[in-house]
Amino acid sequence: MRHTISVLVKNEFGVLSRVSGLFSARGFNIESLTVAETLDPLFSRMTIVTEGSEQIIEQILKQLRKLVDIIKVSDLTGKSFVERELVLIKVRAEEKTRAEVLRMVDIFRGKVVDVTPRTYTIEVTGTEGKIRAIIDLLRPMGIREIIRTGRVAVPRGD
Amino acid sequence: MKRLSGAQIFLDCLKREKVDTLFGFPGGAVLNLYDELYHSDIRHYLARHEQAVVHAADGYARATGKVGVCLVTSGPGATNTVTGLATAYMDSIPVVVFSGQVPTQLIGNDAFQEADTLGITRSCTKHNYLVKSVDDLGRIMREAFHIARTGRPGPVVVDIPKDVTAEVTNYQPVQKVDIPGYNPTTEGHPGQIERALGLLLKAKRPVLYVGGGIIIADAHRELKRFAERFRIPVTMTLMGLGGFPGDHPLSLGMLGMHGTYRANMAISHADLVIAVGARFDDRVTGRIDTFAPEAKIVHIDIDPTSISKNVAVDVPIVGDAKRVLQQILQFLKKAKYAKVKRPKRTEWLRRIETWKKENALSYSMEGDMKPQYVVEKIYEVTRGEALITTEVGQNQMWAVQYYLFKRPRMLFTSGGLGTMGYGFPAAIGVQVARPDKLVFDIAGDGSIQMNSQELATAVQYNLPVKIAILNNGYLGMVRQWQELFYGKRYASVNMSAQPDFVKLAEAYGAVGLRATKPEEVVPVLKEAIATPKPVVIDFHVAREEGVYPMVPAGAGLTEMILV
Which residues contact A143 (CB under 8 A, 6 or more apart)? Predict the structure, then answer.
C-alpha cells in the first residue's frame, strides 16, 4: 500500500543523502520525496511517498526514526491530511487547440505561466487525482514536457 | 574560556572522555593532531594498516566495554578503515574513528589525499560528522562518544579538516549532550513484560535465544538468574557465546548453520522462544518460514528495527537487555509470580539430553592431524581461560565449537560481517586492554595473510599474542561449500604458494613454531605460552576436513548435515 510519511529533520548538509541512502541500501522504494526549510530555519520538512507491505512500511518508519538527524517521523496514511502537488505542463497549443487548452486550464483552476506561438506552459496544483486527470485530458493535444514537484502533505486541524 | 587550537581541543575532549589508549596511523592531514599527541600521556599504538587500526580498537572495545578510539589520515587512511567500520557496525561495537580531511577550502577540489569520507562511511557507521568549524569540534566529539556507546552501540566517524585542527578559538568544554533526534529506549514496557511472563508461565518447552546484546549490556548475571529461576535452556548466537556459561547444564551451545544438533532441534521444537539481544540473522534462523514453527516469540532488543524485521514477533519489548531482565526479575517478586515454583521441565530437558547424546560434536582422529583436535588442546592447555579471537571461515567455527566460553568478553570474532583478517589485529587490541591475559588468535592460513603485517605491531609493543594457524592450504570454508554444493570443483581455493609461517614470524622478530603430528600439539602450545613474545604456531592439519553439523544455506534448522 502507498504511504505518505512526513519527516522533520535537522536542516543540515548530508541529511537528504542519509535518507535516500537508507532507502537505496535496504531496497525500499521512493515514489516521491520533497524537502525544504520549515518556519524554524534549523529544521526541514520532508514528505516521502513510498509503497510497500505493512512489514516494509514498519521497517521504513523504524529505520527513519533511527537516523540521528531525524527529529520526528509521522505516517500520515490513514489519518486526515491535506496533500498537494504542483505540476508544470508544456503542451502544444496550435490554432485549433488553443482555446480548448485554455478552457481546461480554467476548469482545473490552473494558470498559463508561459506562452509561445506553439506552446502553453501550464501550472496546476492539486491532489494526485486532479493532476492525473488534467494530464490525461491534455495528452491528446500533445504534451511536450512535464515537471512535477512531488507531493507535500500536512495533517488537518491544529 | 580559554584560547585553544583545534588540536588542543581534540586532546582536551579525549581526556574528558577518559581516553588513555589510541590506535592510529599518521599522515599529512592529521599532523597537527599528532604533534599535540606528542606531548600527551595518551598511549598511541601505531599499526601497519588502517584496517588493523580499527580492528584493534574494536578488539579493545569488546574486551573492555569502553569506546575504542582511532586516528587516521585523510583519503587512503580513511578509506582503509571502511572494512573495520563495517565490521564494528554489524557487531554493534563502540568505536570512534577520527579521520583527517583536506583543508576546508580544498574540499571538493579532488585535492591530494582527498576522499568523500562522509559519503563513503555513511552506510557503515551509526553516525558520522564532518567538522566544518573549530567551534563545533567540542560538541561533535562529545556527541560522537555518546552516540557510539549508548543505545545499540556502533562506530562513529568524525572527519576533521586540517585547517580546523590549526585554527584557534575561545573554547568552552561541552558538558551536556543534547541530540533531539537521538533518544534510545532503555526501559522495557511493563505491560509487555507482563505479557511475556504470561507466555512463560504457560510454556512447556521454552528456549532462551541470546545474542551479543547480552554481552554488550553486561546482562549475563541477570540472564543466568532468569534462566535458572525458570529452568530455561539457553542457546547462544556466535556473538552471544560467553553471555551464558558454555559449561552450564542449561547451555545448548550455539545454534544456526554450524550450531549444535541439540540447539537446532530444541529451537525447532520449542513452544516459546525468548530472544534477548539477538537479531534473527539468516545464519541463525536458516529457512525463515521453518524457524521455531511451534513457538510464540518474545523479543527483547534495544534496537526497534531489529524487532519483526525477519521474523514476526508476538511480544516485542524494546529496551536495554540488562535493564529489561532486571525489570523481569523485579516483577518476579510480586506475589502472583513469587508463588510459582521453579518448574522441573523433566520431559523437555530429557528430550534435549537425548538430542545431545544422539549427536554430540565429534570428529575422527584417523588420518592427518585434525583442526578440531588442535582447538580442543588449546582449550585444555589454557584451561578455558584464554581470550580467543578468531579469523573467519572454518577456523572460526571450529574455534567456537571446541572452545567453551565460561564468561562474557572471552571471544572476539567478526560475527555479522565475517571479516577475514579480523582476528589478529583484534587480538592486539585485546592484549592492549588485558595485558594480564593470555590471548590466542585461532586463525586459518588464508585469513592470517590478510593482516599478517601486524606482526610488526605486536613485536614493536611487545604484545605476546599467540597465533594458532590451522593450516590446511585451502580457503577451507569455501572449499567445503564447493565440495558439498559444487561437485567438488575447487575453484581458486588452493593456496599452493604459502609463506613459511615460522620464518615469517622470525622475519618480524616474533617466534615461529610448528606442529604436524597430534603428539606435538601440547608441547608446542606449552612452549608458545611460556614464550613472552608474539608467537606464530603453524599447525599442519588435515586438508579436507569439514565443519559439521551444517545447515545448508536456505534449509531449515532441522535439515542438518551431520558428520
Answer: A89, A90, A91, A92, A135
Backbone angles phi, psi at B236, to 5 degrees: -120, 150
Gap between the Cα atoms of B90 and B336, Å rounded:
40
Q: Which CATH class is domain B190-358?
A: alpha beta
What DSSP assignment string belongs to B269-317? H-SEEEEES----HHHHSSGGGSSTT-EEEEEES-GGGTTSSS--SEEE
First-residue to last-residue Cα distance in chain A: 27
Beta-carbon separation of A71 and B180 below 8 A: yes
Q: Characterize the bridge pairing of strands A81-92 and A152-155.
A: antiparallel
Amino acid letter at B74? Answer: S
Rg for chain A, CA atoms, rounded: 18
Using a CB–CB cut-off of 8 Å, the residues of B that contact A are 118-119, 122-123, 126-127, 130, 147, 179-182, 303-305, 308-309, 312
Give the cell for residue A119.
506552446
Inter-chain residue contact B123 with A25, CB threshold 8 Å: yes
CB atoms within 10 A of CB B335: 6
B12-39 core/surface letters (b: 16 or more CB in 10 A; e: else): bbbeebebebbbbbbbebbbbbbebbee
Please give the pLDDT value at position B518. 98
Dump the DSSP string for chain A: -EEEEEEEEE--TTHHHHHHHHHHHTT--EEEEEEEE-SSTTEEEEEEEEE--HHHHHHHHHHHHHSTTEEEEEE-TTS-EEEEEEEEEEEE--TTTHHHHHHHHHHTT-EEEEE-SSEEEEEEEE-HHHHHHHHHHHHHHHEEEEEE---EEEES--
Q: Is the peptide bond before B293 cis (omega within 30 degrees of 0)?
A: no
Residue of A nearest to B313 (CA): A55
Note whether A49 and A11 are same-domain residues.
Answer: yes
For B81-100, how does the pLDDT look when each residue is reduced to its tens digit (9 = 90+)?
999 999 999 999 999 999 99
Q: Are B56 and B425 in contact (CB under 8 A)?
A: yes
Q: Which residue out of B66, B113, B309, B559 is catalytically annotated?
A: B113
Q: Which of A58, A75, A92 is the last residue before a domain boundary?
A: A75
pLDDT > 90: percent of chain B: 98
The tens digit of pLDDT for each residue in B1-50 reads 789 999 999 999 999 999 999 999 999 999 999 999 999 999 999 999 99
Q: Which residue has the cell 536456505?
A: B554
Task: Give the per-residue pLDDT at B62.
Answer: 98
% helix / strand / coil in chain B, to the nearest 5? Answer: 40, 20, 40
Quick check: B420 pLDDT over 90? yes
Domain tally for chain A? 2
Answer yes or no: is pLDDT of A158 > 90. Answer: no
- Residue A65 corresponds to which cell in the numbers above? 526514526
β-bridge mates for residue B387, sequence order: B439
Contact assignment for A59 to B305 by CB distance below 8 Å: yes
| pTM for this predicted structure | 0.96
Query: Which CATH number is B2-171's, of 3.40.630.30, 3.30.200.20, 3.40.50.970, 3.40.190.10?
Result: 3.40.50.970
Measure the CA–CA gap between B224 and B154, rounded to whole angstroms. 26
